[in-house]
Amino acid sequence: MKNLQSTTTLHNGVRMPWFGLGVFKVEEGAELEIAVATAIQNGYRSMDTAAIYGNEAGVGRGIEQGLRQAGIDRSELFVTSKVWNADLGYESTLAAYETSLSKLGLEYLDLYLIHWPVEGRFVEAWRALEHLYEQGRVKAIGVSNFQPHHIETLMQAANIKPMVNQVEYHPRLAQLELRNYCVQQGIQLEAWSPLMQGQLLDNPLLLQLAAKYDKSVAQIILRWDLQTGVVTIPKSTNEARIMANAAIFDFELSEADMELIAGMNENVRVGPDPDHFDF
User: Fold this and answer.
1) Of the candidates 167, 195, 181, 182, which has an alpha carbon nearest to the alpha carbon of residue 272?
2) Number of structural domains in the chain
3) Which of 53, 97, 133, 169 is labelled catalytic?
């Protein structure tokens, strides 16, 4: 993890950046497009969106601008989207993928995820993702918000193991059991809401560590993500924060400080519980 372009290698050999830009709840419009383009110009190579965010078209326009302004090729980017719950099913997932591609203005995705483990529906959706992968339409496939038992259910019918599991992950929700499971299975864990939607930015321990390392609290948390082997995709539309969030490759947290942060875990979520959600 030497710089913003550093990658982890998924179990199928595809290289995924350790760090990227998330766009959850960012509405379509100039702000979104400028944020995506700015991130690419400043060295970001990973963009994460989803059908339910309603902003794939804007992300696509931002990608087009960013590639042109940075003078780089599409192949240098890693673009992720997700199939929403209402579209889970074999044919409906295939159709949802085409819709996402069309909105993004891309010929393929680097990663396509099942957004939530809707019981009785995600296995058929996974079969569609396997088809897309086998056809070469997507570079990697995975899941989001899956607990070990969801993955076990999936694997009873699957031919291909998920390459990524994107979940809520931050110092208050360290998900140790899930993280260990994914390591054992060779599934790359990825963090959404790594900053707990801003709820950790005034935490006394993290403020103390920020002063110690001459970094911001956000930078301490994001560095902790990387050192726990978790890909992270913080959201921001502010250019200064986009750049600051990524300035985490010039320092390393000590093992003792890593343990202090891990000790903050209280299994507290800001998002839905994957075993009890209704949408």
Assistant:
1) 167
2) 1
3) 53
Q: What is the C-alpha separation between 167 and 150, in angstroms, rounded?
A: 13
Domain that holds residue 165: 7-199+230-237
Whichever domain contains 88, its CATH number is 3.20.20.100
With b for 16 or more beta-carbon neighbours within 10 A and e for fewer, the 71-97 pattern comes to eeeeeebbbbbbbbbebbbeebbbebb
What is the full DSSP assignment across 112-123? EEE-S--TTTHH
Share of the chain above pLDDT 90, in %: 98
Residue range 211-229, pLDDT digits in tens: 999 999 999 999 999 999 9
- The verdict on whether residue 115 carries a ligand-binding annotation is yes
Residue 209 counted as domain residue? no
Residue 43's nearest CA partner among 59, 64, 65, 20 is 20
Which of helix, strand or coil describes residue 132? Answer: helix
DSSP β-ladder status, 7-9 and 15-17: antiparallel
Active site residue 53: yes
In 3D space, the residue among 145, 214, 213, 207 whose CA is nearest the CA of residue 171 turns out to be: 207
Q: What is the pTM of this model?
A: 0.97
Question: Beta strands of 158-230 (E only): which ranges?
Answer: 164-168, 188-192
